[in-house]
Amino acid sequence: xxxxxxxxxxxxxxxxxxxxxxxxxxxxxxxxxxxxxxxxxxxxxxxxxxxxxxxxxxxxxxxxxx
Amino acid sequence: xxxxxxxxxxxxxxxxxxxxxxxxxxxxxxxxxxxxxxxxxxxxxxxxxxxxxxxxxxxxxxxxxxxxxxxxxxxxxxxxxxxxxxxxxxxxxxxxxxxxxxxxxxxxxxxxxxxxxxxxxxxxxxxxxxxxxxxxxxxxxxxxxxxxxxxxxxxxxxxxxxxxxxxxxxxxxxxxxxxxxxxxxxxxxxxxxxxxxxxxxxxxxxxxxxxxxxxxxxxxxxxxxxxxxxxxxxxxxxxxxxxxxxxxxxxxxxxxxxxxxxxxxxxxxxxxxxxxxxxxxxxxxxxxxxxxxxxxxxxxxxxxxxxxxxxxxxxxxxxxxxxxxxxxxxxxxxxxxxxxxxxxxxxxxxxxxxxxxxxxxxxxxxxxxxxxxxxxxxxxxxxxxxxxxxxxxxxxxxxxxxxxxxxxxxxxxxxxxxxxxxxxxxxxxx
Lengths: 66, 430
Known about the structure:
The complex is a heterodimer of chains A (66) and B (430). Chain A has 66 residues and is α+β, with helices and mostly antiparallel strands.
């Protein structure tokens, strides 16, 4: 799985890193970054999909096939 | 013995913790906030056994730091037992930073933002119209009782899917609950009675929605599962009571505060709104900075915290005065001036992170971080609709009385919500 954050779109809402701190963290200036964790687990897949769903900016992209 | 000889002159900057319990502080907490910010940024209040943070970036920092501060007062990894005396009964706010908290929150959080919120807005508009119709031919209105305390509670009970025929009964219970929460004494007894009546009313509804859930919020709450477990009926009722208070009372008071500031604090800027109702957005934002409904949030430390050369020990109670941080002159120019055209405050929609692309600081009125207000988007939309509908419906609204005692609150430190007790308007031909 790959998780990508579009920093142009990211509005710094914090919804991903506060609701899913296992996978995301607050980076510089409030934008989101993906933590260096093993992404290929069911738990991380769930965090990624849920975070992408609630992101108010639509800035999180999950590619499950990779 | 001459008393004068032993009496020390009071230090102008010293703070007597009993000031926090006085009526002067409830009415106008801002001078004390300033002394805290300027002279005691980390104040150890030994009398109430707690620590106080008051500067903008210190309050922000504590909100952001989940590793050092928790919302709940029990051990996050320990057993939890519901308190039985709280007016609301068991509720989500007591779950602290635990995974259960995130689970409970996510059951309903999605209902108050985005598309689901947009779906509800026509209903908000309809309820506003209905309530305004009850007084718009009378020529005057007491805005708190007849409008602001009517609209949000009707909206949230609709979202929950409670029968519309019972709405008036619900408004009555709600008003008793809120008075019980804020004022104590005989109000508390009435509040608990209202809660018991409301709970008895909810029992059969919960039973029905458990078996045959619909699309409403109550159905979502009763059917949500964590590890195969549903919430108990008492937890469901505590959740409902919290939604009534958090989703009703805060927005109710926000609406009253916005109108109060436009009528009494900045009547000159009230004129700006007539040609540009979108400016209610700025009124909301500046109200949430200048004197928000909620001024204090509570945390306890989960480890030792060092700040401004002071050491806050582990498991200490900490009050975050967001009402004080919002007036921090280190962040905002002329912080004691209410100005809907302010250029040093992020206007518009809030972020849970407290960070914005325009680089401006936001208000702290919804908190920040994990416990950021769940209903922030809904509160703003609802307040905007209610305020602009009212201004639209009433010809030349103006204060009925020249003087007003101002915004007040029950105890700020017990979570008292700030608002005017009454707000009389007249309208129509002068």
